[in-house]
From TrEMBL, chain A:
Pfam families membership: FecCD
One of the GO BP terms on file: siderophore-iron import into cell
Bilayer disposition of the protein: Multi-pass membrane protein
Keyword terms, alphabetized: Cell membrane, Membrane, Transmembrane, Transmembrane helix, Transport
Transmembrane regions: 73-93, 105-126, 132-151, 163-182, 205-226, 253-280, 292-310, 322-342
Organism: Pseudomonas graminis
One MF annotation (Gene Ontology) recorded for this entry: transmembrane transporter activity
GO cellular component, one term: plasma membrane
SUPFAM superfamilies: ABC transporter involved in vitamin B12 uptake, BtuC (SSF81345)
Name of this protein: Iron complex transport system permease protein
Source taxon at top rank: Bacteria
From TrEMBL, chain B:
Source species, domain of life: Bacteria
SUPFAM superfamilies: P-loop containing nucleoside triphosphate hydrolases
Domain named ABC transporter: residues: 12-243
Organism listed in the record: Pseudomonas graminis
Family, per entry: Belongs to the ABC transporter superfamily.
Keyword list, A-Z: ATP-binding, Nucleotide-binding, Transport
UniProt name for this protein: Iron complex transport system ATP-binding protein
Bilayer-spanning residue ranges: none
Ranges in a coiled coil: none
Length: 348, 268
């Protein structure tokens, strides 16, 4: 009897928390839209949204309308999904591989993406028919496939060790390839452009990016949440997970593939933004514990909020110049990570 | 068709088990049947295949040859979850870097019983509390795992395994790295548990408390039977490379093993 009332109350609780999270996200997105080189007042933003969503017909300056709808809103939404996706990928990889230093780029994805981007942008593969994003996505997937293949056929002691070593090897290979292509073929201008893109750049974001990143992150989060208990069961390693009834190989394959796809999509839209996937999971663990039923959604939320804030900072910190967002996340993330390490080592 | 005969009534049974990785044979031709309620000890020198045998029996690794049966059903035909509802494992080295409480660690034992349709309930809370009480750790339930002593962590692992409500419990050297008092109390705990247990052990005198002993050497099962029959001077010499003989403790009349290094080394 009590076991029937229990799930209902927890369902109510989950929906309650979900409503709060969405409200918070909406507020953050609104703030992200309002703040910028030209700040736009909240009523104007609301009127733009009303015009676009319900054809409310408020008379507005078309330039303001364009900035809000086509630039700032898409940017804020993609920043949010990107932060959420990277944070969730980080949680999953750290838990599965039992390695606190695992991050979403461990699987060679950012290295592969940069090679793909360079092949398109500098070498001119596809002769203008392939976008930078498509090239980056193809590169990311190619690198991940190589890393997965390497991990499967390597003779490491544990699956986690195999994946980490294969990831390092794959990343090094693709980074070397990228450097080779840049030094061989790029002029200074192109090299600078690629550099900027690699550090994370949200300026190319449009509604098509939103249409890609939102479903990918929502689906990815749901897949991971579905496996929340399996992820918990890895607390004492993969043999222990197996003895708790987890089909280890299958769960590892599904979750690593999910994390890789989320990361590849994010990297292809905005470049490789560092530290979010590494730091946010640790910060959330400190606040909310290690249970994935809480850790996953909270990491997604905090990752999203953090990235919106980082984007606002990157646009407003220096007047008239947009910093690569990866610079901001690293400037904030590195000291926070150091703090977590120091605090984490102290017995609590 | 299979030529091996099933032992009727066996709880967990391995027949002709072999296991090799990358060309190295770690286990070969091991057959044994564990009876309901018994406490089977597995002894043997380091690297003789005790851990490997337990992993095969638990279905964590698949035998290269032969098969394991659980309640008469082939392990390979059961899902991981079905196995975990009947067989629990306490590993040799299971550690975590997560900051998790003892209670949370024990709660993991309910994993095979939970699903979207069967979420955590009061019954699970009750079973977890009972498992923690069974290993006498009630007072430490909310302590952080990494602040527990080795013995307390080992008890925690046993509680986690008990929370699975298994019919068979496999323990791999549960007394390793513990002080003598902890060793004896863990052994007493294991031997008094109301489930079938298979326990790998190092100390032969401690193994005397088991109902039966399986002696492993070089990946083979070389003896199986009651401890006093099995641990003969000849076997001790051959398998462990030590000289041993039985003594009677004048205190309570119990038979104990006295073990010494072989003569040739002693005189060298
Ligand atoms: N993955 C592996 N690859 C190669 N050899 C292994 C592997 N795992 C264990 N071994 C070897 O198999 C033998 C049996 O190991 P194990 O079952 O752990 O013995 P025990 O538990 O009795 O000490 C040892 O010689 C060990 O070195
Ligand atoms: Mg062992």
């Amino acid at each position: 009897m009590t076991s029937v009332s229990m799930p209902r109350s927890s369902v109510v609780r989950i929906f309650g928390h979900g409503a709060w999270a969405i409200a918070l996200l909406a507020l953050a997105v609104l703030a992200g839209v309002a703040i910028g080189e030209t700040s736009i007042s909240l009523p104007v933003i609301v009127q733009v949204l009303a015009n676009k969503l319900w054809a409310a017909g408020f008379p507005l300056d078309p330039i303001d309308e364009g900035i809000v709808w086509n630039y700032r809103l898409t940017r804020a939404i993609v920043a949010a999904t990107c932060g959420a996706g990277l944070a969730v990928s980080g949680v999953v990889l750290q838990s599965l591989l039992r390695n606190p230093l695992a991050d979403p780029y461990l699987l060679g994805i950012s290295a592969g993406a940069s090679t793909g981007a360079v092949l398109v942008a500098i070498i001119g593969i596809g002769a203008g028919t392939i976008s930078l994003s498509t090239g980056a996505f193809a590169g990311a997937i190619a690198a991940f496939a190589l890393v997965a293949l390497l991990a499967r056929s390597s003779r490491g002691q544990t699956a986690a060790g195999q994946i980490i070593l294969a990831g390092i090897a794959g990343s090094q290979l693709f980074n070397a390839l990228t450097s080779f292509l840049i030094t061989k073929s790029a002029n200074a201008e192109q090299a600078r452009g690629i550099m900027f893109w690699l550090l994370g750049n949200l300026s190319g974001v449009r509604w098509s990016s939103v249409a890609l990143s939102v479903p990918v992150v929502v689906l990815g989060l749901l897949v991971c949440l579905w496996h929340r208990r399996a992820l918990d069961a890895f607390t004492f390693g993969s043999d222990s997970a197996a003895s708790l009834g987890i089909p280890v190989r299958r769960v590892q394959a599904v979750l690593i593939l999910t994390a890789a796809l989320m990361t590849a999509v994010m990297v292809s839209i905005v470049g490789s933004i560092g530290f979010v996937g590494l730091v946010i999971p640790h910060a959330v663990r400190l606040m909310a514990g290690v249970r994935h039923a809480r850790l996953l959604p909270l990491s997604a939320l905090i990752g999203a909020l953090f990235m919106i804030a980082a984007d606002v900072l990157s646009r407003t910190l220096i007047k008239g110049q947009v910093l690569p967002i990866g610079v901001i996340t690293a400037l904030v993330g590195a000291p926070v990570f150091a703090m977590i390490l120091v605090r984490g080592n102290r017995p609590r | 068709m299979s030529t091996r005969q099933e032992v009727p009534g066996a709880m967990l049974e391995g027949s002709d088990l072999s296991y090799s990785v990358k060309g190295a044979t770690l286990l070969s031709g091991v057959s044994l049947a564990i009876q309901p309620g018994e406490n089977l000890g597995v002894v043997g020198p380091n690297g003789s295949g005790k851990s490997t045998l337990l992993k095969l029996l638990a279905g964590i690794q698949r035998p290269s040859q032969g098969e394991v049966r659980l309640g008469g059903k082939r392990l390979s035909a059961l899902s991981r979850r079905d196995i975990a509802r009947q067989v629990a494992v306490v590993e040799q080295h299971a550690q975590t870097g997560d900051s998790i409480s003892l209670l949370q660690a024990v709660e993991l034992g309910r994993t095979p019983w939970l699903s979207a349709l069967a979420p955590w309930g009061d019954e699970d809370d009750r079973i977890v509390a009972q498992a923690i009480a069974d290993v006498s750790l009630q007072h430490l339930a909310h302590r952080a795992w990494h602040t527990l002593s080795g013995g307390e962590q080992q008890r925690g692992h046993i509680a986690r395994a008990l929370a699975q409500r298994p019919q068979v419990l496999l323990l791999d050297e549960p007394t390793n790295h513990l002080d003598i008092q902890q060793q004896l109390s863990i052994l007493r705990l294991v031997q008094d548990l109301p489930v079938t247990t298979v326990v790998a052990l190092h100390d032969l005198n401690q193994a005397l408390g088991c109902d039966r002993l399986a002696v492993m050497d070089g990946g083979r099962l070389v003896a199986l039977g009651s401890p006093f029959d099995v641990l003969s001077p000849a076997l001790l010499d051959e398998v462990f490379g030590v000289r041993g003989h039985w003594l009677v403790d004048p205190f309570d009349g119990a038979r104990v093993l006295r073990l010494r290094a072989p003569e040739s080394q002693a005189s060298a």
